[in-house]
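ARCHIVE RECORD
Type: protein–small molecule complex
Small molecule: iron/sulfur cluster
Source of inputs: curated submission
Record status: active
Notes field left blank by submitter.
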Amino acid sequence: MGPRFHGREHFAPKGGGGSYRLLPFRFGQLDLRRYVVMNDVGEHVVLAREELVAFARHQLSPASEVYRALKVRHFLFDADSECALDLLALKYRTRADRIADFTGLHIFVVTLRCDHSCHYCQVSRQTEDKSAFDMSREHAERALALTFRSPARSIKIEFQGGEPLLHFDLVRFIVERATALNEEHRRDLQFVIASNLARITDDMLAFCKQYGIHFSTSLDGPEAQHDAHRPLRGGKSHARVLEGIRRVRAALGHDAVSALMTTTPSSLGQVEAIVDEYVRQGFRSIFLRSLSPYGFAVRTSLVRKYGVDDWLDFYRRGLAYILELNRRGCAFQEEYTTILLQKLFSAQGSSYVDLQSPAGIGIGGIVYNYDGAVYASDEGRMLAEMGDGTFELGHLGSDTYEAMLTNDAFVGILQDTLLESSPMCSDCPFLACCGADPVFHQVTSGDPVGHKAFSAFCAKQMGVMRHLITLLEDDPEARRILMGWV
Ligand code: SF4
Ligand code: SF4
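STRUCTURE (tokenized, with ligand):
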């Protein structure tokens, strides 16, 4: 009887240097000493310059560590790599799968009325008495019919405004109708209300409990920071949102409410206090979000009061503080970082709508506005309020589902948002972790692609990716914590 296991020599790479072939990859400088190489599925290796040169010239020794690292991550294949190409193709298909599974997120703007007047508000919110800015039942019915035309297995209906609780009768109507329609369609159906929670009532909470509705709210940090940019008639927006969070948790469970923060100029010096506020209020994560150039953020010039480098400093300090909290035993995550880690390490990548190629507009989410207009993204409707209808797909009163999703202008923009064929992006090492933001580029540079050398979006992505990969490479303790977030 022969040996049951092969000896070491069986697993040793065959042939000498030069006998391997390269698989597709992009590379770029990480810092003064090192380069990062990344492939289409987010696998990456950090190399010294001479290692990169030797790799590209087919001069790496099969016995070297670098060779093994590049081989297991699909950057090269040799005579022993029987299924390397098939495996890489399978990984690519898995990540692209969500394109066929469109559209998962359906945003219903049930009213533009709002009781707040936030300085950075991205929508053209209206005062509470203007019912002309409410969605009608006819438009809601029509939007629901379109919602269930989407092939997506999971459908999330998100109510936005203005303040959706000011038009809760329509929220109730849509939830009940969607639930009834889903008896036939059998999708995994979820509901979320984006609300400042100032007007929440017991009656609303009882309804939300009956239908498993969750909330997403805004919390910008400690009281002074939050109240500085979120004026509410009678004041005390911070106190009202904390009370709302407490009531939602008591009625629906601890995880039934999540919160988002917006970085204003006055946030920049106090990221630790903002993170502490999230920890104090029992949240397990924070999304360090920069301001977007839409609506009141532009009208009040708030968006011009800090630049990408200021935000990157804020982000790096915030992440360092969050990692320190984790080292001290407090499990807490930064969500933008988690999305990028998913793109680096998870087989499915990330479904985050704002970082997709082609862009997530229309594919990831669609917006039914209060007036019946349909937009390819939430930012697209904000841009329309500023007078630019580039991302309008059609109207609930006159257009069919097919006409809206195959309209030439929309399909043309989608084609332009494929990073693989966008100038600069096509050569960028971070492509697999990035996405297209056509609305941002339309508003900042006048076309959906933009010039990436002058793009704040691009500068932010590059800054965050370089920082994250450096942490993963150079700080084993940070790496251990970050890998626990994926
Ligand atoms: S950001 Fe939200 S809560 Fe504030 S004014 Fe705009 S719609 Fe209202
Ligand atoms: S936007 Fe910038 S960071 Fe993103 S893929 Fe394009 S060049 Fe790279």
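CURATOR ANNOTATION: Residues 326 and 332 are 6 Å apart (CA to CA).
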